[in-house]
Amino acid sequence: MNLNLRSESPFKLQISFHKVIEHFEEIAANESGASADYARAILKEIAPYPELRDGITHKDQIVKNIGVIEQLLKSLFPPVLSNNEIKAVSIPFQDILFNQSERFKNILENAGTEFKIDFRDLNDHEFYILSCCIILDEFYGTHFNFSKPLYFDIPTGEGIIKHYRILYNAEFLEITPTEKAVTLTPEDIELLRDNYNNIDLWKEKFPPNSWLLNGFAIVNLYDSTVESAVSSLKGTLLGREGINSGNSAYDEVQSVFRSIYRIPDLRVGFICFDPDEHKFSLPTFSDQMTSFLLPDDLEEEFCNDSLCMNSLRNVVDDKVYFAVSDVTKFLAQNPTSILAHRFKSQNINSFILAPVIKDGKMLGILELVTSHKGELNSINANQLDVVMPFITDTIDRKFTELQNQVQAIIQDEYTSIHPSVHWKFKNEVNKYLQFKRQHKPYNLKEITFNNVYPLYGQIDIKGSSETRNNSLQADLQNQLKSAISLIEKLKKSSGIDLLAAVAQRLKAYRIELETAVKADTEQQIQNYFEKQVHPIFEQALILKTEHCARIEKYFEDAGKMGDFHLQRRKYETTVAIINSRMSAMLDRWQVEAQATYPHYFERFKTDGVEHNLYIGKEIAPTVDFEMKQVYNLRLWQIQVLCEMELEHHFNREILPYPLEVTSLILAFSNPLSIRFRMDEKRFDVDGTYNARFEIVKKRIDKACIKGTHERITSIGKLTVVYTNKDEEKEYLNYIRFLQKKGMLDSEVEMLDVEDLQGISGLKALRVKICYESSLPEKKCYTYDELLKEIDPEEEIDHQNSSVPNTPLL
To answer: Domain of life, per the record (predicted)?
Structure first.
């Protein structure tokens, strides 16, 4: 068999030991003593084998002379190192190996008779050009650094793949051209340099078998299993093909860990950790990755249910590796450990749990398990330090990709939602993805929160509708006045009788505007301008009449930024400024309120700012809930509305229109349910009984005091609408506390609210806001501070309460 085992090569191979033989000849001729005697003995032994000097060209010649070759090379392969070194005679980049050290022979024997040694990641194209570059560097003095690490991947008897880095000693090799060799010019070399992928060009300049590679090389291997496994792991995690083609990424990861730990049955698992809910779940970003912590019938579980307390503290809280080398012993010492029972039932006898942490936040737990006792322990757990950075970055990337996918689905299916309830939407989408991963149908469910306490409040712009109508009237009157003047001038200069009818109609609109603005008045007038008046002005411009300049000025004023929209712009700017200031204040105070206890919050800008708050255990299941949190939020709401009133009071003079605002709170003491309406993309109360809360909200802002035409809301006063005695007492306590703090006036009005459609029996408290004071810089007063100063159980003193038009309650 010819020595050239690859399909093609620029080299004609010839194994020769002439340099070693020449070395012994020199010693025999020039030295004396034992070394010379040894050299002469070797030369005598090899004398019948001239092919060792002249060159071996066939593989069977190696087999035939293997014994004498071993004697010739004994000084290069000392027997004392044979069980330590992984060493053999070879030809670079060919899988010819002979005269192996004992350790190398054992490695190959353990691999099995069916194993065929080959280079990792060295294809025929790369081999050919690599060989050409060796010739160029050796013969033409180039510096084409094309070398790359070469590896043999050799399995053990247990099936673990070990990785060996290949190092060549080419001291005994010579390269010489044959009659087929092509003499290269500098231009040829430059052309080759720029055409790595053109294999035909390389074969033209370096024809197959055109150079003689004579001699032999010594190949040394060293066990680089850990380093190579880490490199392979990096490639696999980044999405490149693994070292064993055809395997999945999960199989590759598992193979890498088996190589690192040299445990044939080592298995790898991963479980996600949600810090918001303190909960474990299966990863949704892989359909192969499993977890040994979770039973087969569970896809998620609170971590207190999965781990015993020591394990929980080590892995979740302390964020360190947790290793158990003997599960049976651990179970005997911790008989109540759910974790140990689960692992034992899966024939796991040693394991390592490693937290995956990114930027101080735990993403999940990597699980290494084996059926062999003692194989995994607290000592070799530290080998994970080498690979955990890559595992962490990959898991973080997967989580980011998943989060983006979750967010995209939430935005598409639910719309943007408040952070306090985001977790429940996330759970629903994760469940959807879990089913999708298993190729099972699943319809996204509506999100519901039960037993939550509602709070509603508003800052309303007083007289906004009237002001808008007045600004509209002023602008339309101004436009009508200008249009009438122009029409009359055009009639006078043109003598067209039709223009008289147009002027008459415009005058009729002016008279109509002086009385009242109906719902369709603006639309009627604008339609008349567009269809009747403006075409006349445009025709006058075309005819270049003497009134062109005034007509152009009219169209300029009729534009959105012109004078005919001045008052409406001032009104809209005023409303926008008020809404912006009030919203900014509310959002600012919300940050503090959310830190006290998470709750759902939404606000709406209309002619003023409305807000809804819902607080309850189901919204923040991981935080202890008690009614004090509700009381605290109700007290917070009153203070924030007072602050918003103060903010407006001291800035209203600089507004385009000095509009006033009123504030209102709806007290509702019963818990209710809210449901996210998929069709409307918003939360709404759930159930017929709870709908009463929404009905009251929509109707109370325009309600009057019973028996009068006076609105229940009033400038400079805070109004609280309620239904029963308990709510009255609760809010009077808040008012009494804030009176002591100088935020509210001492007089409290007790009012009956007029009966509304389908609603009767509402009552209201109304109290004046003290504009001479403000909240302290630190924060809102809390319910705990209220309890220190006021006993909520003591009777409310009504002696300073006035009750216009209604008896005392």
So the answer is: Bacteria
